[in-house]
User: Fold this.
Amino acid sequence: MDKNSIIGLFLIAVMIIGYSVYTQPSKEQLEEQRIEQQHIADSITTIEAKLAEKSKAIEAQNQQEVIKDTLNPVQAAEKEIAAFGDLATARTGTEQDIVIENEKFIAVISTKGGLLKKLTLKEFQTYDSLPLLLFEEQESIQDFVFDYPGFGRVRFSDLYFEPSKAKIKIEGERNDVLVLSLKGRQPGQELNMIYSLSGNTYDLKFRIESKGFNGFDNFNNQPLKLNWKITGLKAEKHLPYQRTISTVFYKYKNEGRDWLSETKEDELVLEQPASWVAVKQGYFSVVLFSEKGFVPNRSSIKVVPFDNDNEFYNKLFLTDLELPAQGDGTLEMNYFFGPNDLDVLNAYGDDLPRIINYGWSFIGWINRNIVHHMYDWFMGWGVSAGIAILLLTIVIKMVLAPLMLKNYKSSAKMRVLKPEVDKINKKFEGKDATQKQQATMALYRETGVNPLSGCLPMLIQMPVLYAMFRFFPSSIDLRGVPFLWADDLSSYDSILQLGFTIPMYGDHISLFTLMMSATTLIYTWMSSGNMPETSQPGMPNMKVMMYIFPFMMIFFFNSYASGLTYYYFLSTLISILQMWIIKEYFIDEKRILAKLEANKAKPKKKSKFQQKLDEIARQQQKAKKK
Assistant:
């Protein structure tokens, strides 16, 4: 073996050892892995416990059926009466699905329990062109639970009801009612579940009446709970984003709306009467309304995310709500099954429109009251969504144009003063930084230049920039709407599927994101001419940072809504055009310099603020001399 081979093998060994050491997880990473593995083990244990409990329940039910089969009819009836009292007669029956339909939705209600099993929105589809289900019987379970005095806990899912109709289908302004009735053992005993719907709304009204049953004929004295587990289904192109805008919202009667975490498991026991609880599944919601407010301290809500590996389910939503009784002892609750559309939710008021995340405070106000209506107005012209976004962008840029002009004039003043600022920097190089600062501020004061005047226009534009960041991904108006190569403006546009995943980037290439980043790079190059190089050691070069940002945007926005990246591309492109027009027709740097030189000849009185800064500087110099 020659010398070169030995050296080569040695280098390879060093590289392998170095790579092993470099990639070896740290103590913190090992601890995080241990915690994650423990969490997974705990989750598995919990699931196994639930499965075991369910198996026991099924086994017990099977045993009851066996016992029932072995008992004679009299003994079986006595056993049912002992367990369910006057409700025993409702323990047998035939399950039947009742379909109620209007222009907005199709709901399936089972005669076993009188419970909602499935709901389909008629006007919408999933990204895969399938019927859009808000919940369905295989993955969601609804039940009403109450304690029957002397007999224990009773679930409606154990009881059979008789329907007043086999099917309902209505349109327009028509109304109809489905009554599911349960008769007791004694004459006059009756329990009714009443569903009322109109032909053209997303509402379903619900009412429970009971009479003749000793112990729970008046719900003022006997509380009833709604247990509802809803497994949210994938409906959008990008399930990870759908999960980020899905959670449980709620509103206490005298406060604003609030919500559970959108990123992790979270639960809450309601501390005050809640006028509504909304299970938000991306662009659609199931909302439960209570005029009196769901009973506090005995009502709870919970959201549980699924693992990222799960490609079918959104999140798991759990509600355990105690219904308040009306004055006559009945129970009432209203459902909403529909889109998170601002125009639709505005009709309900009570802060419900704010389950759409248009941004906090002033940002949300801009989107709800200005941007949304402008976009709808342009769409009313009969143009495509892409053209409407273009028109919206032009209007916004025209409104902000005076601020851009002011900002560019300020930059031009700073640019023409740069040679003099450089002279000051050279003069005080290696000397007291305070003196250099005083000399620089004196130059600005003599020429009448405010170095901060360019910041205010930028600060004013920032809320608009962020408002757009919240508007396009949250607006259902863009959902499923195609434009050019983008098949859905509410999700990313893809011109190429990579077939593999790049960390921090994804498995596809979004063209609008590349175009946005390219125009941002050009704009950065055009606007950075007046920015001085960083002279202080250890400080980052701001020009370099500005040029890095467009490349970072490629990774950050690759999976964002294409409507947003398309808007940012248009906005930056128009900014480039505005900058060129301003530079060619509105800015004369020779005239600006002449005006600044003329300002030097005029005596300037220091402001109180400047006088205070100078006094502080003098005190600092005295302290250094001592």
Notes: The CA atoms of residues 201 and 448 lie 63 Å apart. The two ends are 73 Å apart (CA to CA). The domain at 94-357 is CATH 2.70.98.90 (Beta-galactosidase; Chain A, domain 5). The chain has three domains: 39-75, 94-357, 374-601.
